[in-house]
Amino acid sequence: MSDLMNGDIKVSIRNLYKIFGLDPASALQHVYDGTSKADLLSEHGHVLGLRDINVDMRAGDITVVMGLSGSGKSTLIRHLNRLIEPTAGQIDVDGEDVLAYDEDKLRELRRQVMSMVFQKFALLPHRSVLENAGTTLKVRGVSKREYHKEADKWIKRVGLDGYGDHYPHQLSGGMQQRVGIARALTSNSPIMLMDEAFSALDPLIRTDMQDLLLELQQELHKTIVFISHDLDEALKLADHLVILKDGYVVQQGEPQHILLHPADPYIEDFVSDINRARVLRVRSIMTPLNGPIPDNAHGEVDYDDTLESMIARSGGDTSHSYVVMQDNQPVGILDMTSLVRALVPRAAPEEGVRKY
Length: 356
Fold this sequence. Notes:
The chain has 16 helices and 14 strands. It is α/β, with parallel strands linked by helices. The strands form 3 sheets. Strands 6-7-8-3-9-10 form a 6-stranded mixed β-sheet, with helices on both faces. Strand 9 and strand 10 form a beta hairpin. The N terminus and C terminus are likely disordered.
């Protein structure tokens, strides 16, 4: 994932609310008073889209926002570039309140700071792959020669070398989405918004696209906001995971931590069917090294190895322990008994559960 160490906040969302209806301002007061989403609709005829969202998105990280249909995830991402206007709250990008932008500043934000990759590809059918990939630069007034050169570079980078003269209808779904990613990269914007970008793809193609995104991210360190309804995808991609339900954040944090420490019965139910051995990493369950390396260690393992690989390596022997290495330095000890315990889902705490 991200190699950046400065931890700078690129996007900060504070106390964000969205209510759909004829008089959202008056409906907002009912929400402040504790009215639930269901009651707001039945009693006041308004739909609660987002409730008190507070999320920081760090530069160079992939922040995945996920939840079931109707949870508010697509509504949230469209607030970042103001395709949807909030009812209340604040959105800062690089320390500037984008809600205070005039039309010129907002146009600059959409053209130069944030690019967007859509679920339905959103390619222009009458334009070639090369023209589609260069759309943003063309709109900025860049010369045809220059935007063709830049677009061609990214078309090749996403694996479509030789397809520049083709048209969208001549491409498979996966290839069309690669064009969408190439278009976002050609814009050279530091922030990429990806709204269920891989959801329409077949499983194998979807996996390929996830791998491509992670490969590109290792090189480019974009700030990516990725919307998904698929937990496996979220756990694979996310540096920071935000889980929504009925418009509010149920839990957010490092994905491995959420899987090991669900804070709500909803989250516990959400993660119950995950193949924990395949998803969890050695780093999440190791004991930090405090003192000399034990003499009885059965070898070295990598910080990012999966628990599944460790089960295979140990042959299931719970008496084994291993030295955990990160960047060729010992950082911890993995005890196989700890690994076995981690495979059993932990129940969420019963008290302190937020209900609406």
